[in-house]
Fold:
Amino acid sequence: MANHRLLFSLALVIYFLCETLHAESCTTSFEMKNDLPRGKYADVPMDVVITSVDIAITSETNKVIDHHPWLKVIDHRLLKVGETLKCGVTQNAILYVGAILGNKIASVHGFDPIRDAGHETVFWLVKEDGFYFSYDNASWKKDSPWETE
Structure:
């Protein structure tokens, strides 16, 4: 029994160490708020999947020169009206966000290192007509509309 406790304690220490190192490597925050009308969408949670892919960018031309061929799932959840999803992003990753709402679908680059370089947080707002992004959480620019399947 003591061995099980020791192994469990060791696993917890490793987990928290990895989480701390990941948090320290994240230099930008990503936040997405479900701002759909409460009355119309209260019973319709939005299914959100966030994935990332690591890339390499040249300093001379600011272009992508290499990327890993696989996606890492960062988060997958149902986001209810009024809820906000937050995560950290490293400067060498593109964050892809896919969402399904009833018969509507949408996808955006939640974080793009070329577009979003130098910004502390990239904010996203989900509305009935699509996805909006901002760097100050006040001025919004529409990025992508909802599409029907």
Observations:
- The first strand starts at residue 28 and ends at 34.
- Helices lie at 2-25, 38-41, 113-116.
- Residues 91 and 113 are 6 Å apart (CA to CA).
- The chain has a mean pLDDT of 81.
